[in-house]
Amino acid sequence: MTLTARGVISRRPGESPVLEDIRIEDPGPGEVLVRIEASGVCHTDFMYLEGLVGDDFPYLLGHEGSGTVEAVGPGVQSPQVGDYVILAWRAPCGSCRFCLIGHPSFCSASLNAEPRMFSADGEQLTPALGIGTFCTHTVVAASQAIPVSRQVPAASACLIGCGVMTGVGAALYAASVRRGSSVAVFGCGGVGVSVIQGARLCGARTVIGVDVADNKLEWARQFGATDTVDGRAGGTVERIKELTGGLGVDYSFEAAGRSDTLNEAIWCRDLAGTCVMIGVHSSEAAIRLPLQQFFNLGGSLRVSWYGDCLPSRDFPLLCDLYLKGQLKLDEVVSSRIGLEDVDEAFHAMHAGRVLRSVIIL
User: Is residue 355 over pLDDT 90?
Assistant: First the structure.
């Protein structure tokens, strides 16, 4: 039985998204239908809009979602109808080469639903990151819908689905920040402040937020940074070393997606420090890496995908931390909007006025 829903569609690169009627088929084997209650507006959605991720237009935008399961397909044991869930854009398959060696966060065959969503005129829609959440309803693989406590408000819960998990996980899992260590975070937007929170949860002694906007530096302090550095003043690496006794930090995180800040993140480290790339860079972005200097400094440069998380384990964990008052989520929600306001939300994001705009349904 076909369901008529509403969704925000990107039809061609660079064009404003359009709110349209969509048709959704019943979930198939191993799939569930979720009624979306809230969805965060993330920078990756804008990359889909601009055609920077792929060319499988038209796209059903959105990938940070929370809601309620309304129907399940054949063979689904969990979640069940009525369960309150956060959607994950990665769901380990359990049988690929990475899952089999015990690294499901690197799964190479992440599960997604079959195409179930179409425009009113029958054109197949490509859901962003395999889920599509700028809509009233969506169909996903059952293992992409993670049951969590209803005590976490939908507007806050949805953010765990991408930005918060990406940042917190980068500190907890990708870097394994040590208690008593020092950290620098480049880019203090929604993901960056989540890295700061993750570093605080790990017990870091010094957490330095780096940005070029006054409001983002203030956000860094609000979410736990012990110090901030204004990148507009120049000499960022030197000032970070001044704050760490001339040594540099044990861990640096690049969450801005800029080659210049990645370069600074690499060289602000102490001997044998770890630098973690989180921000998504353009296809043309590059840095010059003096190899002897890099070798002499030691340590590592690595990439973090989705905070190297396991959603089935980590989404409930982050909800529990929120309910215990140890993780700020409500404060990440800068504005609450409707589906018709997505285009303006992208403008607000690029102007740096918001941590997250959240669509409320």
Answer: yes
Per residue in 33-49, pLDDT (tens digit) is 999 999 999 999 999 99
Give start-end residues of each CATH 3.90.180.10 domain in the chain.
3-161+328-360
Q: Are the C-beta atoms of 252 and 192 separated by less than 8 Å? A: no
Bridge partners of 18? 9
Position 223, amino acid: F
Q: Is 356 exposed, middle or buried (0-12, 13-18, 19+ CB in 10 A)?
A: buried
Q: Which single residue is written with the structure tokens 């020092």?
A: 182
Report the predicted TM-score, pTM, of the whole model to 2 decimal places: 0.96
Class of domain 168-305: alpha beta
Rounded Cα distance between 135 and 119, Å, is 12
Please return the burial class of 165, using the count of CB atoms within 10 Å of its CB with bins 0-12, 13-18 and 19+: buried
Residues 6+ apart with CB under 8 A from 170: 195, 198, 253, 276, 278, 304, 307, 308
**DSSP secondary structure code for residue 251 in this structure:** E
Which residues, in sequence order, are CB contacts of 313 under 8 Å at separation 6+? none
Give per-residue pLDDT as tens, 179-207. 999 999 999 999 999 999 999 999 999 99
Q: What is the dihedral of CA 38, 43, 48, 51, to 10 degrees?
A: 160
Q: Which amino acid is at 11?
A: R
Spatial contact of 307 and 169, defined as CB atoms under 8 Å apart:
yes
pLDDT at 356 over 90: yes
Evaluate if residue 59 carries a pLDDT over 80: yes
CB atoms within 10 A of CB 81: 12
Q: DSSP secondary-structure letter at 172? A: I
Query: CATH: 3.90.180.10, 3.90.190.20, 3.20.20.150, 1.10.10.10. Which one for 3-161+328-360?
Result: 3.90.180.10
